[in-house]
Amino acid sequence: MSSIPALTATTVITQWYAAPIALAVSVAAVAAYAHGLHRLRARGRQWPRHRTVLFGVGMLVYLYVSCGAPQVYGRTLFSMWTGQMLMLLLVVPGLVMGGQVVELNRMVAGPGSIGTRLLRSRPGRVLSSPLVGPVIIPVLSAGLFFGPVPGWAVASPVAGWLLQLLLVVIGSAIVLPLVATDDDRASLAVALAMGIGFIELLLDAIPGIVLRLQTHISSTYFEHHLVQSWSPSNLRDQQFAGGVLWCAAELLDLPFLILVFQRLIHADARDAREIDTVLDAERIARGIGSSQPEDSRDQPWWLADPNLRERYRE
Fold first, then answer.
1. Distance of alpha carbon 26 from alpha carbon 96, whole angstroms
2. Does residue 102 contact residue 115 with C-beta atoms inside 8 Å?
């Protein structure tokens, strides 16, 4: 990988590099998913096809980002490395978790499955908190692009492979509560997560703006990257990476907000059903039937109070 051709529309497709960790993880994940589907179908249970498609697309994207042109050019172009990190953190987890891997594991192994235990563990609960999960992304972005991490990842291929896997795991933990089928958070908690998501949308722009407007080198990436004859200047590459981070991070936040909004709708409908159940039980306990006029049922408590009834009726 010391000498590679210039980046073109053709080389984006033709340039590949076999990253051992990514290949091993992909084979293991696909094998585990296929085994779960086989066991589920052996019991005569159905599994939605679109979930399998989402998982398959997610694994293909993960393989391309980890072994394709983003990996090949990621050690030469800071802008390509930045795009690779964003894809692994924000895109791949959404697709893979959209395949409902935890739900499949739960249906096959029962309530005590590994995925369920991890989700209910202390780290899982912390990451799924509406106050923690959305805030991790801007904080992680600041540390990822300005600290020593880029230099480590480029200087050591193994460190780079492990970082890629870590980003996928963190991104999966953040997105899992948004796509989980058994999320029981109240609508207020989901609404809070959506509010924080809008704040995060603004915070995500800061690292990209800083990189884009800097007039000197700010990343340790350039201390270890591979310089090619066609490579742009370091400052120009850094400023272009800032533009990628600025625009891509903002655009990739939108699907997260859409998922949170959909979760808010479902949580609100679930809360409404629970309230209706409680009210129906109270009506039955009071002996009030559905045949009675609507205004005689579910009256505010103050209308039943003899001291307040006449005052509020006036």
1. 11
2. yes
pTM of the model: 0.76
Q: What gap in Å lies between CA 110 and CA 212, rounded to an integer?
A: 49
3-state secondary structure of 16: coil
Q: What is the mean pLDDT of each run of 10 residues along the chain (314 residues)?
A: 83 92 95 92 88 94 95 93 91 89 83 70 68 71 85 91 92 76 60 65 76 87 89 91 82 70 72 73 64 53 61 58
At 283, the amino acid letter reads R
| d(C-alpha 207, C-alpha 173), whole Å | 22
Q: In sequence order, which ranges of the chain are alpha helices (DSSP H)?
A: 11-14, 20-42, 49-67, 69-73, 78-86, 92-98, 101-109, 114-120, 122-128, 133-146, 149-155, 157-179, 187-203, 205-213, 234-286, 309-313
Q: Residues with Cβ < 8 Å from 145, sequence gap 6 or more? A: 82, 85, 207, 211, 219, 241, 245
Q: How far apart are the first and last CA of the chain?
A: 85
Q: Would you call 230 helix, strand, or coil by DSSP?
A: coil
Distant-in-sequence, close-in-space partners of 182: CB < 8 Å, separation ≥ 6:
103, 106
